[in-house]
Amino acid sequence: MKIVVVGAGIIGVTTAYELATRGHEVTLLDARGGAGLETSYANGGQLGASEIAPWAGPEVPWLVLRWLGRADAPFRLKLKPDPEQWLWLMRFLMRCRKSARAERVMPNLALALLSQSRMDEMALQMNNDPIRYDERRDGILQIFHRERGLRDASSSIDAMKGAGLDQKVMSARECVDLEPALEPAFAKGNIAGGIFCASDRSGDAHKYTTQLAERAQQLGVAFVSGAEVTGFDSQSDHITGVRTRAWTFSADAVVLAAGVHTARLAQMCGTRIPVYPLKGYSVTLPTEGIVAPQVSLTDEARKVVVSRLGDRLRTAGTAEVSGYDTEIELKRARSVLDATTDIFPQMRPVEDQAEFWTGLRPMTPDGSPILGQAGRFSNLYLNTGHGSLGWTMAAGSAVGLADVICGRVPQMDLSPFNIKRFSFT
Ligand SMILES: Cc1cc2nc3c(=O)[nH]c(=O)nc-3n(C[C@H](O)[C@H](O)[C@H](O)COP(=O)(O)OP(=O)(O)OC[C@H]3O[C@@H](n4cnc5c(N)ncnc54)[C@H](O)[C@@H]3O)c2cc1C
Fold first, then answer.
1. Whose CA is closest to atom 37 on ligand 1?
2. CB–CB of 373/398 below 8 Å?
3. What CATH number should be reported for the domain holding residue 304?
4. Is 113 exposed, middle or buried (0-12, 13-18, 19+ CB in 10 A)?
5. Is residue 112 lining ligand 1, measured as CB closer than 6 Å?
6. 211 close to 126: Cβ distance less than 8 angstroms
7. Which residues make Cβ contacts (< 8 Å) with residue 158, sequence separation at least 6?
């Protein structure tokens, strides 16, 4: 089949790669000058199966109210006269229930675990020439400032264990023994304890995306950069072509994997999807000569994640519902840097070398991606809406969707990710 994949972020590139391994003639289109230049560029780096719970939960409305008016609030709402934003927010608020969150945990976990095993399999297949992406297999440690937070989070460990994820509760001292760079925070009494998941990993999503795009091209994928998709041609229930300003690419099947822009593209095909941007920030610091952490961390109170990427340390966090704007607001970027130097005061000497970045998470209200056939066109597929988990779930989403497109039974049940779960489609 001739398949056009729209979007060369981590999701589109993994999809193109999987389809090419199955012998299809794949064209990968991206509006930008290369792969992985939007949200997959400088994310938090965590490949965290232990971090898959949706963000919508009973505590969120209260936190938003508490943080109202604070420019550095971890979660911020900037309301716009935009029905898309209001509708998305309404759906998100409706998911702020304990039961709604719980409903999504197991499907998300299964997809994250499938991703891990697919990445391992791919690494074995590329054994003599692996992708180099500053991968670390030291696990992810969630740290808590208060006993209560630790107790609440520990309550789900048994259920997760049943689904194949091993996590361990640790005392504050055990956290420092595991990650000595936490010693200063421990000395200040800022750690009550932690939860450690040894099988979690971290790595640079941009490095992985660009190298996998090259591997995909070696398998025959035609990667066309600078190709912004502007429309689609169709005949009865089939998309027949994908239009860019310069060319039209004929297609037997089309996959939309354009991150936050997928909603607009899907709408051109008559399908509405509730994917809206949640803006976040990251800051990257050099680690040379500094006792920087090796283990990837999540600070539950400050709402940031920290990953060691070779000789760099990346911290990412904050969420803002404010539309499609990607301007760096220094106060918010600074709050992520301040969180880093709060946890690791030893990083202070390199503050002025900080690289700030902002990206838009393609978020669904329920915190799970949308995978599978879409709307009235039988050959139109979606792989999008991975929100804060696109790096963690990319390989599994791609392998699952590629199986669906090829008419094979996927390795896991993909029905929880079907667009039909949103009632307005
Ligand atoms: C601050 C932050 C921290 C994060 N941390 C983590 C983390 O630690 N772990 C994790 O798993 N995830 C994390 N994420 C989430 C993760 O980065 C995203 O889920 C993932 O990058 C989304 O990938 P994507 O391919 O869907 O989108 P993108 O990477 O944005 O790719 C979409 C591509 O589509 C292209 N495109 C758009 N419109 C068109 C068009 N009309 N025509 C052609 N091309 C088009 C764009 O140019 C772009 O290249 C984080 C995100 C942020 C913002």
1. 258
2. no
3. 3.30.9.10
4. buried
5. no
6. no
7. none
Nearest CA to ligand 1 atom 41: 229
CA distances from 351 to 140, 218, 234, 359 (A): 24, 40, 53, 21
**CB of 74 sitting under 6 A from ligand 1:** no
C-alpha closest to that of 12 among 262, 273, 320, 360: 262
Q: Sorting pLDDT into bands at 50, 70 and 90, what band is 357? A: very high
Percent of the chain residues topping a pLDDT of 70: 100
* Ligand 1 close to Cβ of residue 280 (< 6 A): yes
User: Is there a single domain that holds both residue 176 and residue 297?
Assistant: yes
- H or E, element range at 61: helix 60-67
Please work out whether the CB of residue 12 comes within 6 Å of at least one atom of ligand 1: yes
The domain tally of the chain equals: 2
- Residue 424 pLDDT greater than 70, yes or no: no
Name the nearest CA neighbour of 50 among 176, 172, 201, 267.
201
DSSP state of 345: G
Locate the DSSP E strands across 49-190: 75-77, 140-144, 168-171
Do 318 and 409 sit in the same domain of this protein?
no
Verify that 143 and 10 share a domain, yes or no.
no
The verdict on 347 and 382 lying in the same domain is no
- Name, in order, each residue with C-beta under 8 angstroms of 103's C-beta and a sequence gap of 6 or more: 366
Report residue 68 as tokens.
């109202």
Domain extent, residue 257, equals: 2-40+206-273+367-421
128 located within any domain: no
Q: Is the Cβ atom of 283 under 6 angstroms away from ligand 1?
A: no
